[in-house]
Design goal:
Order of helices and strands: EEHEEHEHHHHHHHHHH
Radius of gyration: 24 Å
Mean pLDDT: 80
Distance between the termini: 42 Å
Strand order of the largest sheet: 1-5-3-4-2
Low-confidence stretches: 123-135, 216-220
Structural class: alpha/beta
Shape: elongated
Oligomer: single chain
Largest sheet: 5 strands, mixed
Strand content: 5-15%
């Protein structure tokens, strides 16, 4: 394998295409910046030459950003002549050593590495000549990241979630188990039908659109065993919300505000439809707030 160590200008280092790991200006980044100011870059980044000029970063996106914040113009880089599959494997392996990784980052990274292994058609350690089947690929990936094959499968399923739902998984608003169950729904059966939340003037408008704003007879002390929820709003969206709430109830995490809300009403003897509607409404209110917050962040960055 051809490789050299060079001091490369930062403006010649380009991010890896579809890089799944975020670069965040958090406390860890501040510590990295201070370390670079005092000691320099102790561990070189890894990059490969680009056909159109410059270099494609494989490992070292956070170090490059820290160098920029520290006022450096160059950083040491190990330059390797690698194909894309080998580069993906190294990129994923080097970033999975980080302490704080979001579920969405793992989901994208595991999928990228698994696909790279399959495309290679053989082990990437360059010592085996035996082809790797789909099962062996999953097992190999699990061994390299210290996860079971089933855990790998569940993380990769998260890639089927709509972006807003994935964000809620990252923020701990939806647990792993319900998130995986939701991932099997078609996009239009997830939250895509809502569209741009900015068309709703407030949370209540979105709740009403979905038809989960419980009428008076479903609240308070009224005890109903037969009356059903309102049929306003989209039946597909309402069905999806009920599946979300069912999955949250099955998981039973006390740190999930939606579960606590539904469980409280259930313990009060409320009818099934009452606490399910209540849970769906609370889920949508949280969803509305988080999406609006995310959109505001995007507008600010622009």
């Amino acid at each position: 394998m051809n490789e050299t160590i060079k001091e490369i200008p930062l403006n010649e280092l380009h991010p890896f295409p579809d890089h799944p790991f975020g670069v965040r200006d958090d406390e860890a980044m501040e510590q990295t910046v201070e370390s670079i100011r005092e000691y320099g870059v102790l561990v070189p980044a890894i990059a490969r030459p680009r056909g159109e000029g410059g270099y494609e970063l494989i490992a070292g996106h956070r170090r490059k950003h820290a160098c920029e914040l520290a006022g450096r113009e160059t950083m040491p880089v190990i330059v390797r002549d690698l194909d894309r599959n080998a580069a993906i494997i190294i990129m994923v392996d080097s970033n999975l050593q980080r302490e704080s990784i979001l579920p969405s980052e793992k989901a994208k990274a595991y999928k990228m590495k698994l696909e790279a292994i399959k495309r290679q058609g053989k082990r990437h350690d360059l010592t085996s000549t035996q082809p790797v089947s789909k099962l062996r690929s999953n097992e190999e990936l699990g061994q390299t990241v210290n996860e079971s094959r089933e855990t790998i499968r569940r993380y990769i399923r998260l890639n089927e979630l709509e972006p807003e739902l994935m964000q809620m998984v990252d923020e701990g608003k939806i647990g792993m188990t319900p998130a995986v169950e939701i991932s099997y729904l078609k996009p239009e059966e997830q939250m895509a039908e809502i569209g741009d939340v900015r068309r709703f003037t407030h949370k209540g408008a979105l709740v009403a659109f979905a038809g989960v704003d419980a009428p008076p007879f479903q609240s308070g002390t009224f005890d109903s065993k037969t009356r059903r929820i309102s049929k306003r709003g989209s039946p597909h969206l309402r069905s999806s919300l009920f599946q979300v709430c069912s999955a949250i109830l099955k998981q039973g995490h006390w740190d999930n505000p939606i579960y606590c809300f539904m469980d409280k009403k259930r313990s009060e003897g409320k009818h099934y439809y009452v606490y399910m509607v209540a849970g769906a409404a609370k889920f949508l209110r949280i969803y509305y707030a988080k999406v609006k917050e995310h959109l505001a962040t995007l507008e600010y960055s622009c």
